[in-house]
Specification:
This protein has about 450 residues and is of the alpha/beta class. It is built from 13 helices and 14 strands. It has one domain (about 10-445): Alpha-Beta Barrel (TIM Barrel). α3 crosses α5, α3 packs parallel to α13 and α11 packs parallel to α13 (about 430-445). It binds phosphoenolpyruvate (PEP) and cobalt (II) ion (CO).
Length: about 450
């Protein structure tokens, strides 16, 4: 049943059920920050948004593959040159592996330039008998466990907007400057590539690609254009309703509204209910939209979401990001695929093998096993194939840094290793080597 009211405005979410929001003690300061944010320049443009939707339509039709990746939670401190460029490097290397192995063009969407708000399982966090508001991401409060840090501060929304703008500006400048030129993949080498187990395979592939490009350029008798440019799009969970509303705007000479704070906003699992304020806010924008779905998603729920967010069945509009966990995917994914097929709806299917595979170690770390992540992706590929569907992409939490947060991978990281470089603010990420290994695993499964 579609319970969503047809009347939409950027504020109509206020009439719906609001979940996962901070309580700001100073309402005057909150209004001031929202007002200021509403007048700040947008971060993306309507034509970039349309371009991405076209590419996602190609993904939906099996002609392109999507890689969406980045931090679980970005932090303001990590808005710096090495962190941003290393993340771009690893995404570029992974997409090179995928282009070469899948023989398909890739669309890259970063979990960056705005991934600053996090849903939490409880409003309060208690440590040694002291209860404080939970950390809800840098957009809301600070992670340090003391009273002052945890008070939601509306001025952080402006810092979030500025940090997103700086991140995007740097990414755009790198790409425009030729950093992503496929003729020069050596620009993306991270210092420790040479120590990686996958290094030789990767270097061989790079050599083959260079030779093929050289050969094609000889045949064409000219330098091939657009090899020097790849597109990067931004995405984040559209969680903070005031922030997202302030960036939901009309633009000259286009119909309707756009979320101009990111190319690709997604709705998280904790806020995807049919009565949700988040669904209401995103129902009114032209952006392509991601929706997290999981083992708890029923037929009525899935159809209600699609009817609310994409009633005209527009191609490229909806990406269903499924996150079941390796042990639950077989019992649930075929069911969701069939619902869409029977009702004649289309969507991009994207596998998030991270959020259903989180566990805790005996030494108190939140982690994920590389093998479970890999198994969920491989099962997703098999299931989509056998159900006559197409797995269009993967959604990964990763970083270009040499962290030790997920267990396993070629270096067989163990629980003790987690103590060495566990840096994430929220969920454990694949490190650089594990990310590259994942891209190679996707290719080898695809070509089986
Ligand atoms: C996330 O993507 O970081 C997240 C919180 O995921 P989910 O909504 O799927 O739990
Ligand atoms: Co996460």
């Amino acid at each position: 049943m579609n319970t969503i009211n047809k009347q939409w405005s950027p504020e109509s979410w206020k009439l719906k059920t609001v979940r996962q929001q901070a309580t700001y003690p100073n309402k005057v300061a909150l209004d001031k920050a929202i007002n200021k944010l509403s007048n700040m320049p947008p971060l993306v443009t309507s034509w970039e948004i349309f371009k991405l939707k076209e590419k996602l339509a190609e993904v939906q039709n099996g002609k392109r593959f999507l890689i969406q990746g980045g931090d679980c939670a970005e932090s303001f401190d990590d808005c710096n040159s090495p962190i941003i460029s290393n993340r771009i490097k690893v995404l570029l290397q992974m997409s090179l592996v995928l282009i070469h192995g899948l023989k398909l063009p890739i669309v890259r969407i970063g979990r960056f330039a705005g991934q600053y708000a996090k849903p939490r399982s409880a409003d309060l966090e208690t440590k040694d008998g002291v209860s404080l508001p939970s950390y809800r991401g840098d957009l809301v409060n600070k992670i340090a466990f003391d009273e002052k840090s945890r008070v939601p501060d509306p001025s952080r929304m402006l810092v979030g907007h500025a940090s997103s703008a700086m991140t995007l500006n740097f990414v755009r400048a790198l790409i425009d400057g030729g950093f992503a030129d496929i003729r020069h993949p050596e620009y993306w080498n991270l210092a420790w590539l040479e120590h990686s187990g996958d290094s030789t395979e990767y270097q061989d592939m790079m050599k083959k690609i260079s030779e093929s490009i050289g050969f094609a350029e000889i045949l064409a008798g000219r330098r091939l254009g657009n090899l020097s440019r790849v597109d990067f799009y931004s995405s984040h969970e559209a969680l903070h309703l005031h922030y997202e509303q302030a960036l939901t705007r009309e633009v000259p000479r286009q119909d309707g509204f756009f979320n101009l704070g990111t190319h690709f906003p997604w709705i998280g699992l904790r806020t995807n209910q049919l009565d949700s304020a988040h669904v209401e806010l995103l129902r009114g924008v032209n952006n392509p939209i991601g929706i997290k779905v999981g083992k708890e998603t029923t037929k009525d729920h899935l159809l209600g979401l699609i009817e609310a967010l994409n009633p005209s069945n527009e191609e490229g509009k909806i990406t269903l990001i499924h996150r079941f966990g390796a042990d639950n995917i077989e019992a649930n994914l075929p069911r969701l695929i069939k619902i869409l097929q029977e009702e004649g709806y289309g969507a991009v299917w994207c596998c998030d093998p991270m959020h259903g595979n989180t566990e805790s170690t005996s030494n108190g770390y939140k982690t994920r096993k590389f093998n479970n992540i890999k198994r969920e992706v491989e099962l997703a590929m098999e299931i989509h194939k056998s159900e006559n569907s197409y797995l269009g992409g993967v959604h990964l939490e990763l970083t270009g840094e040499n962290v030790t947060e997920c267990l396993g991978g070629a270096r067989e990281l163990n629980e003790k290793d987690l103590e060495r470089a566990y840096k994430t603010q929220v969920d454990p990420r694949l490190n650089y080597e594990q990310s590259l290994e994942m891209a190679m695993a996707i290719v080898s499964k695809y070509n089986q």
